[in-house]
Design goal:
By secondary structure, the chain is of the alpha+beta class. About 25% of the residues lie in helices and about 35% in strands. The radius of gyration is 25 Å and the shape is globular. InterPro entries: AAA+_ATPase, ABC_transporter-like_ATP-bd, ABC_transporter-like_CS, ABC_transpr_MalK/UgpC-like, Mo/tungstate-bd_C_term_dom, NA-bd_OB-fold, P-loop_NTPase, Transp-assoc_OB_typ2. Pfam families: ABC_tran, TOBE_2.
């Protein structure tokens, strides 16, 4: 079933879209290799759907270019780009059977009638819906309807598949199942896929590379491992699940780490951005990197005492909220302390990530300011 990719590279060069004075997307540079699964990730309003619609040809660019193997396609109408789109709301024809929904696009593309039947059958087999071919969309579950939408795109054999939050209308169990199905189809058919989502767990589990957007601007491009372990800035860290974000002051920059003070908390962490002694910083720590220190452990750095206020059962672990004064810390633990109990929390210095706070100039910026003063 696998077929040869119909391009080698897709390039977005300085892609932007504005609406009057409002910037929806700006300066998007990205090269996608054939066969890659790329996730555009970020909160609502960050520009990810705008980027996808610009790629699809549904929204014209106000800046930049889109090229396939060096040839511009942003000047071509949507129907000539040979890109397939899977929408969030399925966009099925309610009066047509599953079969007709899948075959309709082929008919519109004037595919020879003798080729339509085998292509529809193949697409329905791939999404395990052959036995539902004569049903109407209303007779299907949400997950099955999304499979029909995917089959419709597969049947067209586009050179690029675009997916706009295709799982957001499904329940948790179906989302997990469809994540696996979409990844399976991507690998089995050798597709090139660009996938929009606001769900970081979804993106981490499916994509080869992630593009994190905020306020229409790219914050980081990297593999799931890179974004999970080393977010480029505190905005990315916040979005990627580092729920403990502490505003701090840098006390010292040492070879073995950065010493920061956040109120009553004093920690040694690892700087991922340039920071200077006396400057402002933010410390990012994942809940699963904070642990409850055992009573027999030797005293060590990066310990704080906090009072447990909330304990939530999460299956194999517990989600805790602990307070230190007015500060709330989020912790994952294999054991459940009692509410009201005082615990000692510890974090490895390598997992306390230190970022320069917004508005704090770097040494280079300070030097430039002095030189031009």
């Amino acid at each position: 079933m696998a077929r040869q990719a119909r391009f080698e590279t897709l390039e977005l060069r300085g892609v932007g879209r504005t609406y009057g004075s409002q910037v929806a997307l700006t300066g998007l540079d990205l090269t996608v290799r054939a066969g890659e699964f790329i996730a555009l990730l970020g909160p609502s309003g960050c520009g990810k759907s705008t980027a996808l619609n610009c790629l699809a040809g549904l929204i014209p660019l106000t800046d930049g270019q889109i090229l396939v193997d060096g040839a511009r396609v942003d000047t071509e109408p949507a129907e000539r780009r040979d890109f397939g789109m899977v929408f969030q709301n399925y966009a099925l024809f309610p009066h047509m059977s599953v079969w007709k929904n899948v075959s309709f696009g082929l008919e519109m593309h004037k595919v020879p009638r003798r080729d339509i039947t085998p292509r529809v059958e193949r697409a329905l087999d791939l999404v395990h819906l052959r036995e539902h071919a004569r049903k109407l969309p209303a007779q299907l579950s949400g997950g099955q309807q999304q499979r029909v939408a995917i089959a419709r795109v597969i049947a067209l054999e586009p050179r690029l598949v675009l997916m706009d939050e295709p799982l957001s209308n499904l329940d948790a169990k179906l989302r997990l199942e469809m994540r696996t199905e979409i990844r399976r189809l991507h690998q089995e058919l050798g597709l090139t896929t660009i996938y929009v989502t606001h769900d970081q767990e979804e993106a981490l589990s499916m994509a080869d590379r992630l593009v994190v957007l905020r306020d229409g601007r790219v914050q980081q491009v990297g593999t799931p491992e890179e974004l999970h372990d080393e977010p480029a800035n505190w905005h990315v860290a916040d979005f990627m699940g580092f729920r403990n974000l502490l505003e701090a002051t840098v006390e010292a920059v040492r070879d073995d780490g950065v010493v920061v003070a956040a109120g009553d908390i004093r920690l040694t962490g690892r700087a991922l951005e340039e920071v200077t002694a006396g400057g402002r910083a933010r410390v990012a720590i994942r809940p699963d990197d904070l642990r409850i220190a055992g009573p027999d452990e030797e005293p060590a750095e990066n310990r704080v005492r906090a009072v447990v206020r909330v304990v939530e059962y999460r299956g194999r672990e517990f989600a805790l909220e602990a307070t230190l004064g007015e500060r709330v810390l989020h912790v994952r633990s294999a054991v459940a302390p009692a509410v009201g109990e005082t615990v000692e929390l510890a974090v490895d210095p390598s997992r306390a990530l230190v970022y320069r706070d917004e508005g704090q100039p770097s040494q280079v910026e300070e030097a430039l300011a002095e030189a031009t003063a």
